[in-house]
Amino acid sequence: MQTKERGVNDVGGLPGGPVDREEHAETLFEKRVDALVMLLTHPRIGAFKVDSLRRSVEMNSPEDYASLGYYPKWMRAICLLLIE
User: Treating both helix axes as pointing N-terminal to C-terminal, what angle do 28-41 and 70-83 enclose, rounded to 10 degrees?
Assistant: First the structure.
């Protein structure tokens, strides 16, 4: 059986430190990125699928994946997918 190299997003079983479980108010940036994803993945627009968004997020370098927040990763992925 071959072992596949871990993807940058595959952190299962690795030490990750504490998880911040505090609720926070959504920022305008977060709301806009979320709305953009909903619009671009809507069947009438069909710019890309959510699976493509996930693939694009997972293509970040380990340094970028670790340093970027959730929505900045999405925004970078959206830009890459629209260029594709």
Answer: 40
Q: How far is CA 21 from CA 1, 43, 70, 74, in A?
A: 38, 33, 15, 21
Q: How far is CA 7 from CA 35, 41, 52, 59, in A?
A: 27, 24, 15, 8
Look at residue 55 and tell me whether its pLDDT is greater than 80.
yes
77 by Cβ neighbours in 10 Å (0-12 / 13-18 / 19+) ranks as buried
Domain boundaries, given as residue ranges, for the chain: 28-83
State pLDDT tens for residues 8-22.
Answer: 777 677 787 888 899
